[in-house]
Amino acid sequence: MFRPRRPLIPWNLKNLPSRPGVYIIYRADGSPFYVGRSSVSVRDRLCCHATRSGSRKVREALDRGEMLSFEWEEMSSPHQAEAQLIAALGTRTAGNLTRETDPADW
């Protein structure tokens, strides 16, 4: 579902599309560290993280010298991403949240 993982450095972001998408940022040991989405441009959002102007947690990890990597996928909507993640994770029989109150989750 996601594109191959790459180190989270500005050079690796220049060819990403300026389209909506979802992404996962990983620690050097391969464990997921941060999950995000952009309804406008996944490239711009990841660039913010890589240049330390995005999430405070990502900035602090980079400031400590952690080597982070990312994978991403272009999506036309967060709803599409959610449906694909549910299918990929095999959680069709489990319920998902339908009463989100944070507009950022819509």
Tell me about this structure:
It contains three helices and four strands; from the N terminus they run E-E-E-H-H-E-H. By secondary structure, it is of the alpha+beta class. It has one domain: 3-Layer(aba) Sandwich (GIY-YIG endonuclease). Strands 1-4-2-3 form a four-stranded antiparallel β-sheet, with helices on one face. Strand 2 and strand 3 form a beta hairpin. It is globular and about 35 Å long.
Question: In terms of topology, how is this protein built?
Answer:
Layout: E1 6-7, E2 21-26, E3 32-38, H1 42-50, H2 56-63, E4 69-74, H3 78-89
Antiparallel strand pairs: 1-4, 2-3, 2-4
Q: Key terms for this structure?
A:
single chain, about 110 residues, alpha+beta, GIY-YIG endonuclease, 3 helices, globular, disordered C terminus
The helix-strand sequence is EEEHHEH
**What percent of residues adopt helix (DSSP H or I)?**
25-40%
Shape estimate: globular
CATH architecture: 3-Layer(aba) Sandwich
Number of helix segments?
A: 3
CATH class: Alpha Beta
- Remind me, CATH topology? GIY-YIG endonuclease
Q: Largest beta sheet: what is the strand line-up?
A: 1-4-2-3
* Low-confidence runs of at least 5 consecutive residues: 92-106
Radius of gyration: 14 Å
Give the assembly state of these chains.
single chain
Which range does the strand content fall in? 15-25%
Number of strands: 4
Distance between the termini: 21 Å
What structural class do helix, strand and pairing data support? alpha+beta
The CATH superfamily is GIY-YIG endonuclease
User: Average pLDDT, to the nearest integer?
Assistant: 80
The major β-sheet equals: 4 strands, antiparallel
